[in-house]
């Protein structure tokens, strides 16, 4: 659906999608017993989703045993909505509900390039409130289909940099709540534990030969995941270091290296879900140890190499992280170090068959993955990164 902001909100309110067992639509004072009953039931439903969800798998990327280095991918694609953003959406809904921001019968609005919106549409339907995703027109058709499948509505913008203002305006016009993942991602998740992604990784590594990873590699869209992992590592007094890879057309790397909170990019990222045109409030530069700038063609080469290695297609953000993780493995190998490295399998590649797995799309974008594919092949064959 492509419409003006008011129309998007009105249509969303009229057709929110039916929850499993409809909750009452109320517009009541916060002290009203009916509102409190609605709130308790909404929180219960969101928490019950977590109880029904088994922990996600920790996949092992095949490396020669004699290297003495293990590489893992935390497979977040197995969540009910198919991505890492399921954790974030659950946390954001609990945060918004418990703060009294998400109200019965009123739409939830989000600025999102796709996966967060898919997951938030799922939770909105779960508690019976309308949902509208404000997103770039270039968002993959599969993500749009999934948002609509979960009862959400899509409101498109031509310039990704306008998503924030458009979302806030839409919320104001409809009386809804702008979820604002880019501000609240780092604070909605309990980084001290409570089965967050970091605690899960360390629990799953307990019986591995290197239970405390040397590095965790986490790409950044909001920055919430890297903030959660870094805070947990510091809180638990681990020696693990955190690396955040950044794609082209994103300002995070420049802002981090220059210590510039006002850094910007004049265009949107081609790697959906990560990279931003501004330094987001949830991105915490001081919590992480290292950043890498990764060419988009390298990210695509990496996801295709992953498919060859383990028979699984992943989205481009997984490729950005995997490329950086393999570069770190190469550095450790060259230095004679042993240990483990963890990165994220963010979402499935079937959402991007018309992009990262399409040679036609690569040609349209002017991306040549050949040199990067050869680098990866040479490293995985010889243990030496070309040119290193």
UniProtKB/TrEMBL annotation:
Required co-factors: pyridoxal 5'-phosphate
Keywords associated with the record: Cytoplasm, Lyase, Pyridoxal phosphate
Pfam families, sorted: PALP
Catalyses which reaction(s): L-cysteine + H2O = hydrogen sulfide + pyruvate + NH4(+) + H(+)
InterPro entries in UniProt: Cds1, Cys_Synth/Cystath_Beta-Synth, TrpB-like_PALP, TrpB-like_PALP_sf
Region annotation Disordered: where it falls in the sequence: 1-29
Modified residues (N6-(pyridoxal phosphate)lysine): 85
Biased composition (Low complexity): 10-24
Keyword Disulfide bond assigned: no
EC code(s) of this entry: 4.4.1.1
Domain of life: Bacteria
Domain Tryptophan synthase beta chain-like PALP: 56-347
Family: Belongs to the cysteine synthase/cystathionine beta-synthase family. Cds1 subfamily.
Job description of the protein: A cysteine desulfhydrase that generates hydrogen sulfide, H(2)S. The H(2)S produced by this enzyme modulates the balance between respiration and glycolysis, and contributes to redox homeostasis. Probably eliminates toxic levels of Cys (which can induce oxidative stress).
Name of the protein in question: L-cysteine desulfhydrase Cds1
Record organism: Streptomyces yaizuensis
């Amino acid at each position: 659906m492509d419409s003006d902001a008011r129309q998007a909100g009105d249509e969303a309110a009229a057709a929110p999608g039916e929850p499993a067992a409809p909750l009452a639509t109320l517009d009541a004072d916060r002290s009203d017993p009916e509102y409190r009953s609605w709130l308790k039931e909404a929180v219960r439903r969101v928490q019950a989703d977590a109880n029904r969800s088994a922990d996600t798998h920790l996949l092992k990327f095949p490396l020669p045993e004699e290297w003495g280095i293990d590489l893992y991918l935390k497979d977040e694609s197995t969540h009910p909505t198919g991505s890492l953003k399921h954790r974030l959406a659950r946390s954001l809904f609990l945060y918004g509900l418990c703060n009294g921001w998400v109200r019965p019968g009123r739409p939830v609005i989000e600025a999102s390039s796709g996966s967060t919106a898919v997951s938030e549409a799922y939770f909105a339907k779960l508690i019976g409130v309308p949902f509208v995703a404000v997103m770039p027109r270039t968002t993959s058709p599969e993500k749009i289909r999934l948002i609509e499948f979960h009862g959400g509505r899509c409101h498109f913008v031509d310039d990704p940099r306008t998503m924030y203002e458009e979302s806030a305006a839409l919320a104001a016009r409809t009386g809804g709540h702008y979820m604002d993942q880019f501000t609240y991602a780092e604070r909605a998740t309990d980084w001290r534990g409570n089965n967050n992604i970091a605690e899960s990784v360390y629990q799953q590594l307990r019986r591995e030969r290197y239970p405390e990873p040397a590095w965790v590699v986490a790409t950044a869209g909001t920055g919430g995941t890297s903030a959660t992992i870094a805070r947990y590592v510091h809180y638990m007094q681990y020696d693990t270091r955190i690396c955040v890879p950044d794609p082209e057309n994103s300002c995070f790397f420049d802002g981090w290296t220059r210590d510039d909170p006002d850094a910007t990019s004049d265009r949107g990222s081609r790697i959906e879900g990560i990279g931003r045109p501004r330094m987001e409030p949830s991105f915490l530069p001081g919590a992480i140890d290292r950043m890498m700038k990764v060419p988009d063609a390298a990210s695509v080469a990496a996801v295709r190499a992953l498919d060859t290695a383990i028979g699984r297609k992943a989205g481009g953000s997984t490729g950005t992280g995997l490329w950086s993780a393999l570069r770190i493995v190469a550095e450790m190998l060259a230095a004679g170090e042993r240990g483990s490295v963890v990165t994220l399998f963010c979402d499935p590649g079937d959402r991007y068959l018309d992009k990262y797995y399409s040679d036609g799309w690569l040609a349209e974008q002017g991306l040549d993955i050949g040199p990067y594919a050869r680098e990866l092949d040479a490293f995985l064959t010889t243990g030496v990164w070309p040119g290193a």
